[in-house]
Amino acid sequence: MFSIQKLASGLPILTAPSDGTESITVLVFAGAGSRYEQQNNRGISHFLEHMFFKGGKKFKSTKEVSAAIDGVGGDFNAFTGKEYAGYYVKVAAKNVELACDVLSDMLLHAYFPTEEIEKERGVIMEEERMYQDTPMYRAGWDFEELLFGNHPLGWDTIGTEELIKSVTQEQFQKYKEWLYTAANLCITFAGNITQEKALSLGETYFAPLGGTHKETFMPFTDYGTEKVMLRTKNTEQAHLVLGVPGVSSQHDDHFAMKLLAVILGGNMSSRMFLNIREARGLCYYIATETDNYLDAGSLSTRAGVDQSRLHEAIEAIKHEYLLCAAEGVTDEEVQQAKSFLKGKITLSLEDSEERAHYYGKQLLLYPGVRDIHEYFEKIDVVTRDQINVLASRLLSAKELRLVVIGKEEDKAKLVEMIS
After folding, report:
1. Which of 200, 320, 358, 405 has the smallest C-beta neighbourhood within 10 Å, fewest atoms?
2. Residue 1: which pLDDT band, with cuts at 50, 70 and 90?
3. Element housing 397 (H / E)
4. CA-CA distance, 240 to 304, in Å (whole number)?
């Protein structure tokens, strides 16, 4: 179970206790992901995430932050997605006040030292180059660009080189003041903690966070019309992503699409794994996944294959999509997918960090927060017919989009193959 309380400022405090764990994760979610950006500040959300750890009033440097958390064997990190950013500290329960102290000092007193900004520019440029040199990651970014086009959902969270090289301390301060308000944040406590303790810690450490500004972002309306994105590169493998536009996180078919993805390529007993990896030996990794945003979504399959068998792999994945659209799924597949999905969620939520993420993301973004029982009910009520109708609608040749990174040079041939 979980509970939600609010401080006088309106800042929500969500508590998700868990029996049988000695850890607590304190996670701050902010409505400050990359889709809040404009063309002239692409990447500021991600850069700001890095800068929050560079010093505040009490912990004056990255070294002091690290030493405090490392000194008790804790974990801390941050992440920037399209619709949110997050900052967390995970510690043994007895050290929860330290976790709050570090996070509150960061949120309230980060001052973004100029000399640290200059150093971090190089760090982020190297991060960007790392992704450029890792095709299995780069292909996923390219797929979102292909699908969502020149919209913030289609932009890389890491941003543009121009922004990375030019952003200033003043811009960071303004961006923080704009989005890091009580109305645009939520604090989640998960693990070995009570509602009363969490509220007390919230009052003690986070009460000064104020502000009523809650920024909205540009709605998404139209998927891109380009069919193929090709990066010709001298790689050992050809990496591909083949997928279609999907449904949003708020759509009635959200859970049906999750189950469809499991059936197609979500585990080692899925169609893609058995028919393409095991039966044909076409690839080492292959997986079907969904991305679900508030007003958009996708379903895609990614794989790494021998350069000489790229076309065969594309045809094989396309075949599985079209076969599923034409003939549907079986009752047995649906039940197995439901059991798999619920089992994976159950296991993940034994970790206080995953538990904090599960609840905090919902509180920040969604109209309501579902507990595990309600979430599983949504999975259970999905019918085979619902999945089949969705598959026939989504998995059509005219909706296919393909990204390839490898030695392939003939883009026209790829367009022909998926049309």
Report:
1. 200
2. confident
3. none
4. 6
Domains of the chain: 3-206 (3.30.830.10), 228-418 (3.30.830.10)
CA distance 343 to 11: 33
Q: Is it the case that residue 286 has pLDDT exceeding 90?
A: yes
Mean pLDDT of 165-182: 95
Q: Which two tokens stand for residue 364?
A: 């920040």
Identify the helix (H) or strand (E) that includes residue 231: strand 228-232
Residue 264 has pLDDT above 90, yes or no: yes
3-state secondary structure at position 396: coil
At which residue do the structure tokens 């998404």 appear? 220
Residue type, 215: E
| CB neighbour class for 166 (10 Å; exposed up to 12, middle 13-18, buried from 19) | exposed
Angle (nearest 5°) at CA 111 between 108 and 114: 165
User: How confident is the prediction for the chain on average, in pLDDT?
Assistant: 96
Which of 4, 180, 39 shows the shortest CA–CA distance to 103? 180
Cα separation of 190 and 25, whole Å? 5
Catalytic residue check, 49: yes
Q: Where residue 213 falls among pLDDT bands split at 50, 70, 90?
A: confident
Residue 392 CB burial class (10 angstroms; 0-12, 13-18, ≥19): middle
* CA-to-CA separations, 209 to 41, 118, 358, 405, in angstroms, rounded: 25, 28, 23, 45
| Whether 27 contacts 202, CB under 8 Å | no
Contact (Cβ atoms closer than 8 angstroms) between residue 141 and residue 131: yes
Task: Report the distance separating Cα 3 and Cα 187, nearest Å.
Answer: 12
Q: Which of 37, 49, 289, 333 is catalytic?
A: 49
Placement of tokens 């007193």 in the chain: 109
Strand pairing class (228-232; 401-406): parallel
